[in-house]
Amino acid sequence: QVQLVESGGGLVQAGGSLTLSCAASGRTFSSYAMGWFRQAPGKERESVAAITWISGTTYYADSVKGRFTISRDNAKNTVYLQMNSLKPEDTAVYYCAAKDRLTTPRARYWGQGTQVTVSS
């Protein structure tokens, strides 16, 4: 089992920044790639970014490239999502997830989610 706990969501104005954190625990969490997904009201959940624990290889959705940065701190077992130049369309519940491969759209384990609201 892998446990994931997110933090850092909130309300921000358009153009602002937020950083999300995801603390991972469990016996085998380092064998998975870590990703951030988001789900806006009435829309399907989408993959936003992902990173591997060992090499730090990253993946980004086109909609966030150049604005979001995913990183990890192996010593703290924590993954971060730095979100800059936020837009109202970034408003969603953001979920941390552990998945088998960097670019797969599916995940094996999910966090509880954290709300991000961007006001115009």
Proportion of strand residues: over 45%
**Tally of separate helices:** 0
Report the strand count. Answer: 11
Helical proportion, percent range: under 10%
Which stretches are low in confidence, meaning pLDDT under 50 for 5 or more residues running? none
Oligomer: single chain
- Average pLDDT level: 95
SSE ordering: EEEEEEEEEEE
Rg result: 13 Å
For the biggest sheet, the summary is: 7 strands, mixed
Distance between the termini: 40 Å
Shape: globular
Q: Look at the helices and sheets and give the structural class.
A: mainly beta
Question: How would the blueprint of this fold be written?
Answer:
Elements: E1 2-7, E2 10-13, E3 18-26, E4 33-39, E5 46-52, E6 58-60, E7 68-73, E8 78-83, E9 92-99, E10 109-110, E11 114-119
Parallel strand pairs: 2-11
Antiparallel strand pairs: 1-3, 3-8, 4-5, 4-9, 5-6, 7-8, 9-10, 9-11
Descriptive terms for the model:
four-stranded antiparallel beta sheet, 120 residues, mainly beta
Describe the structure.
- The structure is a single chain.
- With 120 residues, the chain is an all-beta fold.
- The protein has no helices and eleven strands.
- The chain has strands at residues 2-7, 10-13, 18-26, 33-39, 46-52, 58-60, 68-73, 78-83, 92-99, 109-110, 114-119.
- Strands 2, 4, 5, 6, 9, 10 and 11 form a seven-stranded mixed sheet that branches. Strands 1-3-8-7 form a four-stranded antiparallel sheet, with no helix packed on it.
- The protein is globular and about 40 Å long.
- The mean pLDDT is 95.
Summary?
The protein is mainly beta and about 120 residues long. It has strands at about 1-5, 10-15, 20-25, 35-40, 45-50, 60, 70-75, 80-85, 90-100, 110, 115-120.
